[in-house]
Write a structure and sequence with these properties.
Elements lengths: L4 E2 H7 L3 E3 L5 E2 L1 E2 L9 E4 L16 E4 L10 E3 L3 H12 L8 E2 L4 E2 L4 E2 L4 E2 L4 E2 L4 E2 L4 E2 L4 E2 L4 E2 L4 E2 L4 E2 L4 E2 L4 E2 L4 E4 L4 E4 L2 E4 L6 E3 L4 E2 L4 E3 L6 E3 L4 E2 L4 E2 L4 E2 L4 E2 L4 E2 L4 E2 L4 E2 L4 E2 L4 E2 L4 E2 L4 E2 L8 E3 L4 E2 H10 L3 H19 L11
Parallel strand pairs: 4-5, 5-6, 6-7, 8-11, 9-12, 10-13, 11-14, 12-15, 13-16, 14-17, 15-18, 16-19, 17-20, 18-21, 19-24, 20-25, 21-26, 24-27, 25-28, 26-29, 27-30, 28-31, 29-32, 30-33, 31-34, 32-35, 33-36, 34-37, 35-38, 37-39
Antiparallel strand pairs: 1-3, 2-7, 22-23, 39-40
């Protein structure tokens, strides 16, 4: 049976206030376009504001200054954050029963918390330590001496290589690889000589790693991911990178070796960050940016190569006018040459 909650209960949860009938009960959350008569919806992006006039939802979560007189409203400062908190209430993470499936393989000397869950096809090497309430889905590999804190949740086919340390409450999505060898080679006359990667990886508490993301182990010291960091699918973090607490990195970003990224940063998808750089705290990098040098903290950057966002916007606004501007410059050059009695040249020709 669906769990129902009153608007009054939900408003208390999100530090909001109800405008309208606070006794209305809702059974789930839904998008503003698809919500039905027992659903709660929200409006965080102004692009969807037009749907307030047509949504069939029982109630809506709104921020300050957004009017709606046809539905009960939960009014709060941040509708998207309120949506996230309410969705977590309706859909708490379901953990499977504790126990080790007989088809899992645990080597002698591994330590497994009594309340943890190991499903069929897992492998846990000697010397590995798993805390309480850890969940390993089928196909997970935990290497020798690796450590997982309490309440970690590993989806299918996650690899945690030897010596990796993972804090509490971390979530690793399917196919994530933590602690693969860093890409380290020395060039010789005979070709590339592999440099042993003898460091490890350290993940802080409350880290989430997306599907098929790769975090390489350090060459000597460790690769370090701070507490609360969220890394999206298909991200590559090279050896000896250090990422500060609560930074968010979206899909298909690549960070080259030995770069330090501060805390509270946000890096847009498909961006590339060169090695041995310093990126300050609170930096935002727009999607598809290229970062070849250090970045000051607290700034917004965009472009290839990156520049401060305001300068990048001015440049982008100018680009469509370049052909017209070129023609104007050529015309001015011709007129100036005629006025001064100088010979004219044809100038650059169209490709």
């Amino acid at each position: 049976m669906a769990m129902e909650r009153s608007l009054e209960e939900l408003a208390t949860l999100v530090d909001g206030e109800v405008e309208g009938d606070a006794t209305v009960r809702v059974a789930r959350l839904a998008t503003i376009e698809e919500a039905g008569p027992t659903d709660l919806t929200f409006l965080a992006n102004p692009r969807y504001r037009r749907f307030l006039a047509t949504t069939r939802a029982a109630a809506v979560i709104l921020g300050p200054g957004v009017a709606c007189d046809r539905l009960p409203v939960i009014r709060c400062d941040d509708p998207y954050l309120a949506f996230a908190r309410i969705l977590r209430l309706f859909h708490p993470m379901q953990r499977p029963p504790a126990g080790i499936d007989p088809r899992a393989w645990v080597e002698a000397g591994a330590q497994i918390g009594a309340s943890s869950t190991l499903m069929a096809g897992c492998f846990v090497a000697a010397g590995a330590q798993l805390g309480e309430r850890v969940v390993l889905h089928p196909g997970c590999y935990i290497g020798q001496g690796a450590r997982l804190g309490d309440d970690c949740y590993l989806y299918p086919n996650v690899v945690v290589r030897e010596g990796v340390q993972i804090g509490a409450r971390c979530i690793l999505q399917p196919g994530a690889i933590i602690g693969a060898d860093g890409f380290g080679y020395a060039q010789t006359d005979e070709g590339a000589l592999k440099i042993p990667q003898v460091g490890a990886v350290r993940l802080g508490d409350d880290v989430e790693i997306g599907a098929n993301a790769c975090i390489d182990r350090g060459a000597l010291g460790d690769t370090v991911i701070g507490a609360g960091v969220k890394i999206d699918n298909l991200v590559q973090i090279a050896h000896n990178v250090r990422i500060g607490d609560h930074t968010i990195i979206t899909a298909m970003v690549g960070v080259a070796g030995s770069t330090t990224i501060g805390g509270g940063c946000a890096i847009g998808g498909h961006s590339a960050i060169a090695g041995h750089l310093e990126i300050g705290d609170g930096v935002s990098i727009a999607a598809m940016s290229g970062v070849p040098g250090n970045l000051r903290g607290g700034q917004v950057y965009a472009g290839i190569p990156v520049q401060e966002h305001r300068a990048w916007r001015r440049m982008i606004a100018t680009l469509p006018r370049l052909p017209e501007m070129r023609k104007e410059i050529e015309s001015l050059h011709t007129r100036l040459a005629a006025l001064e009695g100088l010979p004219t040249d044809e100038g650059p020709t169209e490709a």
